[in-house]
Specification:
Elements: H1 3-49, H2 52-102, E1 111-116, E2 121-128, H3 131-144, E3 149-156
Parallel strand pairs: 2-3
Antiparallel strand pairs: 1-2
């Protein structure tokens, strides 16, 4: 296994785990919302069948259950969105690093790619042997990280001569 693939494996694992977590969160949200909606509907039916104060109390309980179900659904949706943002950031990191490694005009072995999902920023850190490679790496990152700002902290450092 090459060094390049060993570098990509953690990012691939993170991407897969995030996708799975997002799917599970959405499924749990749907299940919770379905259960709460069913309970609210049953309570409402019982309220309509009942009369007087008991019926009113059941109707109020049904309304409260419906409100609770809506809150659960909202929280689950927020969690799924957060997980989606994290997965998107991991994907950006992976896409940029893979493109840098595949480029013939960039030695990406000493380039680190970090992505901040909150600020939608991709940061390049490390060293390259020539200014042209620095410019190429920055260009590639901008092309691959659509919707993200690219910050370059790359430094040009010539490799020491053997001798």
């Amino acid at each position: 296994m090459t060094k390049a693939w060993m570098t990509l494996l953690p990012a691939l694992a993170l991407c897969a785990a995030g996708t799975l977590a997002c799917a599970r969160a959405e499924q749990k949200a749907e299940e919770a919302e379905d259960k709460a909606a069913g309970a609210a509907e049953r309570a409402g039916e019982e309220a309509r069948e009942g009369s007087g104060q008991a019926g009113d109390a059941l109707e109020k309980a049904g309304e409260k259950a419906g409100e609770a179900a809506e809150k659960v659904g909202d929280k689950a949706a927020e969690a799924a969105e957060t997980i989606g943002d994290t997965v998107d950031a991991a994907k950006q990191t992976l896409d940029v690093k893979a493109a840098l490694m595949a480029a013939d005009d960039v030695d990406a072995s000493a380039i680190d790619v970090d992505t901040d999902e909150a600020t939608k920023t991709v940061t390049l850190r490390g060293t390259v042997p020539a200014a042209g490679q620095k410019a190429a790496a920055e260009r590639i990152a901008r092309e691959k990280a659509e919707g993200y700002t690219v910050r370059s902290q790359l430094k040009v450092a010539r490799a020491p001569r053997a001798g």
